[in-house]
Specification:
Elements lengths: L5 E5 L2 H9 L3 E6 L7 H11 L4 E4 L3 H7 L15 H11 L1 H13 L1
Parallel strand pairs: 1-2, 2-3
Helix pairs in contact: 4-5
């Protein structure tokens, strides 16, 4: 995967995350036979943001030919501070937010 310019993969979350982590252009093929299709939901959400091309087995050849692969956007790097900030705001609520505001004002 590291040497690939384009990855065509099933739409499983692990495969998608790995390809996006490697900053690769990605075409995801959704398994339309799944009930409560989480693959479709994830693929459509990422396609709506231009991070992947989402397709099905039946449409793969057509969608590959028509895809604007150069228009795909690199998925942003994760922010390691988001989860701790969320937890702090849930646990400490307004007091945490006020402290953050004071800290920002002092810089």
């Amino acid at each position: 995967m590291e040497r690939a310019e384009l990855i065509v993969s099933h739409a499983g979350a692990g495969s998608i995350v790995e390809a996006l982590r490697l900053r690769k252009k990605l075409v995801v093929v959704v398994n339309t036979a799944l009930m409560d299709n989480h693959q479709l939901e994830l693929a459509e959400a990422l396609a709506d943001r231009d991070h992947v091309v989402a397709t099905t087995c039946e449409n793969l050849a057509h969608d590959l030919a028509e895809a604007d692969l150069e228009g795909l956007r690199v998925y942003p790097e994760p922010d390691p501070n988001l989860i701790p900030q969320l937890l702090d705001s849930v646990v400490f609520g307004d007091a945490w937010e006020a402290a953050q505001d004071r800290e920002g004002a002092s810089h």
